[in-house]
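User: Please fill in residues for this 242-position structure.
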């Protein structure tokens, strides 16, 4: 990593796999995003990161887009969205709609147009490759910058963590070496519905899991609070939404 080290602490709320617009979940995703924003406001975190599959598909009704924007607009700081495999950033992406383009400027989309998002007030830079084609050839963590313009560095990815011994290869693979070699402080992952620590080689990496249970339990679950401290490094806490 670069020699420049941070002088300030910050806290992020990490979530993913909300699946707004999913037919069989009724209003559960809407309840979840409202509670996520409520918690982000109550904790006064510095930013909110949503690591993919915010929408269940790219054909969601306009009301689902309006719901997301209205909820995130209640959070007075930065929200950062990475397109996943359900809401991939292809030509028909929900994120290319005019109603999404009218969002507040503090709601950021990692669409691949810039190498990374820079938030100078937080001394934070965030990088992520949006899913365009969910296939075996797509590697979410390939291309992590070697140099950054901020002291705190966060990588976002949406894909399948895969060990060398895996017998069932999946699309959008993320290998242990991809994480271990990432020049960053934290890797915020999405694609798995449960919170899992996949840290490698000293790089802290987590799947946050979905903020709700999409199975028969049908209820709110949890999010991940990520604390960045210049003295102690990166730590995480699982916070229930109920």
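Assistant: Residues filled in for all 242 positions:
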């Amino acid at each position: 990593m670069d020699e420049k080290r941070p002088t300030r602490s910050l806290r992020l709320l990490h979530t993913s796999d909300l699946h707004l617009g999913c037919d069989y979940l009724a209003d559960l995703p809407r309840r979840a995003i409202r509670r996520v924003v409520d918690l982000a406001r109550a904790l006064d975190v510095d930013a909110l990161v949503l690591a993919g599959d915010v929408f269940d598909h790219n054909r969601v009704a306009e009301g689902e887009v309006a719901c997301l924007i209205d909820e995130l607009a209640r959070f007075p700081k930065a929200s950062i969205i990475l397109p996943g495999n359900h809401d991939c950033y292809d030509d028909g992406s929900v994120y290319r709609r005019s109603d999404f383009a009218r969002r507040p400027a503090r709601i950021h989309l990692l669409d691949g147009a810039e190498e990374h998002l820079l938030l100078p007030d937080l001394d934070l830079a965030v990088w992520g490759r949006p899913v365009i084609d969910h296939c075996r050839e797509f590697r979410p963590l390939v291309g992590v910058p070697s140099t950054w313009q901020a002291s705190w560095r966060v990588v976002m990815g949406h894909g399948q963590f895969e060990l060398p011994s895996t017998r069932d290869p999946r699309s959008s693979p993320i290998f242990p070496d991809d994480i271990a070699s990432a020049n960053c402080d934290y890797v915020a992952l999405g694609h798995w519905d449960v919170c899992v620590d996949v840290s490698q080689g000293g790089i802290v990496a987590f799947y946050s899991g979905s903020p709700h249970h999409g199975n028969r339990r049908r209820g709110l679950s949890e999010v991940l609070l990520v604390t960045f401290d210049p003295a102690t490094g990166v730590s995480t806490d699982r916070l229930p939404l109920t």
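For context: The first strand starts at residue 10 and ends at 15.
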